[in-house]
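Q: How would the structure tokens look for this protein?
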Amino acid sequence: MNNHHRNIASNTSLTLLGACIAIIVSACSFQQYTAKPINQIASVERFQQKDPASAGFQQYLLSNGYPEKNLPLQQWDADDLTFCALYFHPSLDVARAQWRLAEQAEASAAERPIPSLNGHFANSNQANGDNSPYAFGLSIDIPIETANKRDIRIENARHLSIAAKLEIAQTAWQLRKDVVQSLNDYQFNQQQIIFLTNEEARRKEIVAIYQKRVDLGAASNVELSTAKLLLQTITSELNAKKYSRLVLRSKLASSTGLPLTKIEAMHFVPDADSQKEVGFPPSGNLQTTALLNRLDIRIALERYAVSEAKLKLEIAKQYPNLVISPGYAYEFGDSIWSLGLSGLLTILNKNKLAIAEATQLREVEATQFEALQAKTIAQADTANMELMLAKQALDNQQKLREQQQLNTQRSERKFKAGEIDRLELAFNELENINADKSVALLQFQLKTAQNQLENALQKPLSAIKNTSENNPKNISNLEDLSFKKPNNKTK
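A: Here is the predicted structure in token form.
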């Protein structure tokens, strides 16, 4: 009868083991690996197909406040090109992919430890006359996390995910910075080409006048040679600016993420029309604006929160995790039930070294944050001072140009009256061109200073002055715009 019961127990254990294995196998829905090689040729073709006149981009502009009557755009300014960068530039796709990875890591951090199943089977030669030659067992290890470690891991992953999301906006702001500076450089180059072309024409006229005077014996060859050398210098400078125009167009294409051919087909808003009297933000608001808007400061705060979570986790690791192991064994005719309990003896060292390391990491993040704050305040104050100085210099130079224009007008009247000759008038016109060049240079420096202050604050000056409320192309909130993922199919 005992053998009969043992056989029943043996069969029951085998059935239980088989059922557990069957349940585990049937519950597993394994994913299959799918290869996804990168097709370089197709990638190049997709890049070449990027077109600001595409229906997808037009719809993107409509969704961001552009009036339908203004589309497609005939002239492009810095805001329009910034939307191009937000839609076409691949660096935002990289930042969004990294954010999705961080979100997946946040989901993974919430997973609970998986129980493990252990089993064994043995066969005896019955040397001791055992009733049954078989022995087998089955147990389940159920891990139990203590000290709230799972919630701390979730907190850590959430801060990393927020930091990755802010990196998208940081990338968007960097794109805007590059677009604005590239457009400013290109427009200034175009102005220089116009001024140098006019100056070259006057220099040629002066050389021709000296040549006639030399032929008539009314001037020396030294004066003619000096005029020719000045003409050669201006011609060389003009050619250099024309070559630079191609490079600056390439930089503009790179900052927008568009092919160079698309940029070459664009017509940009004239530089004079793009000069906006933004004004100056109140100096008392600069530091507050910078500290509240700077994305790198907000990212630094999240990194500090990550270091805090890491320290909490290391402190929680002082308390060992437990593993409960209920099991059943059939050993040579005997049925045995068991309940095991195990855990690491972390109480011996209390995780002191890891806690000290995490504490020091938190101190590093704290000092880095304070240094970043101080640097941000200094950058904002310096950029604001440079902007005021640039504005003052421009105002002074514009007054000098107005005076020079009056002098040129008087010279033209004298020339018509026969009081001065053509050579004197040409030199006076050169002075007028040089005055225009000086004003253009200071206007470029002013726009550069405005761009630097906006980058220090990471907020457009127009938004600070509340002048963009009625602007349909409101580019002030790049954080929200950068999170809007355009449809790839429309690109």
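Residues 199 and 430 are 6 Å apart (CA to CA).

The beta strands are 116-123, 134-144, 322-331, 334-343.

Upvote if useful.
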